């Protein structure tokens, strides 16, 4: 089977969340009730049920009928209400539904054999129809195996230590980094406190008061008071709850290292990099666009050996497209090696001669 068809089937397996209760018009008489135990084939000995095949056929048919009906008539000359004009479309849909069923089975087999993962029974399997539960469980299983696939995709990039070190040496200052705690005092904080005490304070007064409070905190630190306690007492942001600790390594430019989407004000970063030894704290308030900071150096990493993990993480970063491409190829390899048996005849789909051979 062509890789594009694998990708299409995978896309539907991952994203479909709606279920259809009716039986496929291509394979089941509409007057009969669903048979939830009918087997239509197998993959490596594992049964494939009629309702699985029908689920993919019906969901995709309804998607096109509900959203693309007019477009099919206009651009493809296919009228889903006319069987003859729809014959090729329905044939492709039959083939798609069967291959989706195969790949759903292979995903379950992959999860169990390679990652020792299987879904624990859950209450909705007893109250929902099997095809509805199939959709939900496929998404559940995908969520469980995705982290493994992501790690495998990263490893497949094969970035060597030498390549990572060359990348680091291109701009060491972009990687040498700090981790800090801080206590921030803001003019807004002082104005709100004044309002609570029914006292008037304009912004200039509040800014001067914030600087004075930051200087007072520095004096308390010099007198031996604990940084975390002072952060909890005076900190104006959420880090007051963590003793001032900020869970981010950042470079001299303020850019995040372990979280590239985060970062700090450059004046704040400069204040942090002025501290030389772990445990050092600011001797003067560090002013940024957000307020006055007292900074404590918690950790520093300099040189490739100390930041290697961050460099490798960046070079081996993979996005969802890369993971899906890796997964698509993995599924293709599994399907090529699989023992697939189908014990029903397609109504519309005509298998190419090479597949028949």
Overview of this structure, please?
Helices cover 53% and strands 10% of the residues. By secondary structure, the chain is mostly helical. The chain has two domains: 3-157 and 318-356, no CATH class; 172-309, Chitinase A, domain 3 (Roll), CATH 3.10.50. It has a three-stranded antiparallel sheet with strand order 2-1-6. A three-stranded antiparallel sheet has the order 3-5-4, sandwiched between helices. A hairpin with a 2-residue loop joins strand 1 and strand 2 (46-49). Helix 1 packs across helix 4 (87-115), helix 2 crosses helix 6 (130-157) and helix 6 (130-157) packs across helix 13. 27% of the residues are buried.
The count of domains is 2
| Strand tally | 6
The end-to-end span amounts to 13 Å
- The secondary structure category is mainly alpha
Instruction: Please list the strands of the largest sheet in the order they lie side by side.
Output: 2-1-6
Low-confidence stretches: 16-31
Most strands sheet: 3 strands, antiparallel
Tell me the β content.
5-15%
Fraction of residues in H or I helices: 40-55%
Determine the number of helices (DSSP H or I, runs of at least 4 residues). Answer: 14
Radius of gyration: 31 Å
Shape: elongated
Average of the residue pLDDT scores = 90
Order of helices and strands: HEEHHHHHHEHHHHEEHHEH
Throw out a few tags for this protein.
3-stranded antiparallel beta sheet, 2 domains, 10% strand, 14 helices, elongated, single chain, mainly alpha, Chitinase A, domain 3, 357 residues, 6 strands
């Amino acid at each position: 089977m062509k890789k594009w068809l694998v990708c299409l089937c995978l896309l539907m397996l991952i994203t479909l969340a709606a279920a259809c209760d009716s039986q496929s018009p291509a394979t089941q008489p509409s007057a009969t009730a669903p048979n939830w135990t009918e087997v239509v084939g197998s993959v490596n000995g594992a049964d494939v049920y009629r309702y699985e095949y029908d689920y993919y056929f019906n969901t995709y048919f309804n998607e096109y009928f509900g959203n693309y009906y007019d477009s099919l008539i206009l651009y493809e000359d296919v009228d889903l209400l006319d069987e003859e004009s729809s014959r090729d479309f329905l044939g492709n849909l039959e083939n798609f539904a069967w291959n989706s069923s195969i790949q759903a089975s292979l995903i379950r087999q992959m999860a169990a054999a390679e990652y020792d993962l299987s879904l624990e029974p859950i209450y909705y399997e007893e109250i929902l129809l099997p095809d509805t539960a199939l959709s939900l469980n496929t998404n559940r299983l995908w969520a469980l195996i995705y982290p493994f696939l992501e790690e495998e995709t990263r490893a497949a990039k094969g970035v060597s230590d030498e390549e990572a070190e060359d990348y680091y040496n291109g701009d060491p200052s972009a990687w040498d980094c700090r981790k800090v705690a801080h206590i921030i005092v803001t003019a807004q904080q002082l104005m709100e406190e004044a309002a609570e005490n029914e006292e008037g304070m304009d912004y200039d007064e509040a800014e001067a008061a914030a600087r004075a409070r930051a200087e007072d905190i520095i004096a308390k630190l010099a007198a031996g008071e604990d940084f975390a306690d002072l952060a909890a007492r005076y900190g104006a942001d959420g880090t007051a709850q963590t003793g001032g600790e900020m869970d981010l390594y950042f470079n001299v430019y303020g850019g995040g290292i372990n979280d590239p989407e985060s970062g700090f004000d450059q004046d704040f970063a400069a204040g942090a990099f002025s501290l030389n030894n772990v445990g050092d704290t600011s001797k003067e308030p560090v002013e940024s666009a957000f307020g006055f900071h007292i900074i404590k150096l918690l950790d520093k990493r300099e040189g490739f050996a100390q930041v290697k993990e961050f460099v490798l993480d960046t070079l081996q970063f993979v996005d969802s497209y890369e993971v899906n491409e890796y997964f698509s190829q993995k599924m293709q390899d599994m399907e090529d090696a699989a023992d697939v048996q189908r014990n029903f005849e397609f109504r519309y789909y005509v298998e190419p001669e090479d597949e028949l051979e």
